[in-house]
Each structure stands twice: as C-alpha cells, then as structure tokens.
Amino acid sequence: MPLANFLSAVRELILDTDTFADNLDDRVADYTTRFPALSPEEIQDLAKITPDRLKIYTSTIFHGEKSTLLNHFACSFACLAKYWEEAYRRKFSEVGLVRALHRRYPWETNQTITLANNYVRYVAEALTEIQNVCPWIVDLTNLELLSLITKREHSDVEARDSLQEDELLQLTVEEILSLKAQIPEYVHFEQFSYDVIEVIRSFHQKSSIDTVPTTKNPVSAICGRNQKLYPRWAKTDIRLHDWLRDRRQKAQIDIEELADFFLNSIADPADSEEEVFILFLRTLTSFINAGILVISRT
Q1: What's the domain range around 109?
Q2: Which of 62, 106, 202, 253 is the most exposed place for a label (fewest CB within 10 A)?
Q3: For the purposes of burial, counting CB atoms within 10 Å of the CB of 35, is it exposed (0-12), middle (13-18) or buried (19 or more)?
Q4: Please, what's the largest Cα pairwise distance for the chain?
Q5: Is 27 part of any domain?
Q6: C-alpha distances in Å from residue 141, one per residue of 40, 90, 287
Q7: What span, in angstroms and rounded, lies between the C-alpha atoms of 73 and 221?
Q8: 13-41 per-position pLDDT tens digit
Q9: pTM above threshold 0.70
Q10: Which of 134, 168, 184 marks a domain boundary?
Q11: Is 91 exposed, middle or buried (0-12, 13-18, 19+ CB in 10 A)?
Q12: What is the dihedral of CA 166, 157, 280, 151, to 10 degrees?
C-alpha cells in the first residue's frame, strides 16, 4: 500500500484521537476497521506504536501550535484566560483551546498565517459565549492578525527610507509643505467597534488585561511598521483615515495637499494657524514614526 495511507493514519491517531485501547489486539481490531486502506502488516506496525508514545507526539504538536499562536495573539489569549471561567464555568486551557481549534479548522500547512486565520475565525464563529462577557475579543484578534500580516508583508519602501522626525523638525514650514510622501504596501486601514488599541497598549505595558472598553466606541486606525519592522497602530480621525486610504495607490502624496485637508476638515476653527500647524506636525511625525508615511528626502 502507498506510504501516504500509512502516514495519513498516523496523523489521524496523533491529531484526532483522544483515547486508545491498551491491548495490542484491541488496537489491531480498531485500526482494521478505521483504516481499511492499510494492509494487515501495516495495521500491525501501527498498533505497535504505544498509546503513551502517540500522546507524546500529540502533546508536542499541540504545544507547538499553542506557542506559535501565543507569539502573535498573547493579548487575546490573556483575555480568553481572564473571562473564560465566567463564560463557560470551567478553567481555561491553552492547549485545550488549540485542540478544539484543530478539530474545527485543522492546520494542514506549515504556514503561520494559516494557523492565525484559523484562530481568528474560530474565536469569531465558535466562541460566542465569551463574546457576551468580552465583546471586544473579535476586534482584538483581528487587530493582532493585521499586526502579524503587516509585519510580514512585502514592501518596496520601508520606514527607514523616510525622512525622520529629527530631520523634519529642522525644516521650515515651506520646506515641509513641499515634501512628498508614499504609503507603503504593508500599511493597513481598519475600523474597530471597540477601542482595542488601548487594550493592547495597556497589555504590552503591564502584561495583564487592566484596560478594557466598557462600551462600543468606534475607532479608526492605521497600522504601519517602524524602522525595527514592528507593527505600530495610530488612531486617527475617520475623515483623515479615509482620505489616506483613498490615496494609498497613488505613487506620491503632496504634504501640502495633506496639510490643506487637515486644515479644512480636521482642525478646530477656533485654533490659531500656529496651533493647527503644530497639531498637523505632531500627526505627521506620528505617521512617520509608525511607518505609515514614508517621506521622500528629495
């Protein structure tokens, strides 16, 4: 029989089987029924793999998946741990979550992004009870997923290619307004129903879930990546968010055009011209530092 059939059976035992017969003959009988494509000799070889050894393989694989998810979804895992018992009346298990995720959406590639998408989909579609006590969890997992995508996405220009904040502050107003900017390919525009930006910022500072939104508070945000290639989110006015999003395909954006939009649509009419420009400059430097805008030096 083809080796693929045998390996498929091994995979099913490791990933999809919770209980095994202790007796060799009982395992032979069980596997003969479950794996009709295997020869008697292959059934015997399969049955000789002890349950304890299979469980070691299972534990290793699911702990590996758990570690991969924790690297990118630490904040939402912490939220699940905090609210799980309230939602489900039982203790939270990270490995238990991963096993349940696998049963519903098996990870059948070695690509982290596939596992990440499976996790986000699972939280949104299967964990409805916890959404009643932690309604921002779906927004949070989407934010973490977009951060992962932003970190890995290809781009021909990077934050390190940009005029930096200290260089910008040495220019005159006229020189600043004459600059050109690009929006790199890795930049993502998103709107959240809850302010999960503050949830994740607080988590990164304290390693605990202390700051949580109490009500819906729609947030428009843009994700870039800084010079160290770390994802960085900037909350923005919805009008500025949409204005930049609509121009992301342009080869260049005139900073003067951006400043005019900011003055006419964002700024408080009661503010002086100097106050408006200071606010604009603060916004512009935040975009540069987050890698959302790459300012040409020429």
Answers
A1: 72-134
A2: 106
A3: buried
A4: 87
A5: yes
A6: 47, 22, 23
A7: 19
A8: 888 888 888 889 999 999 999 999 899 99
A9: yes
A10: 134
A11: exposed
A12: -100
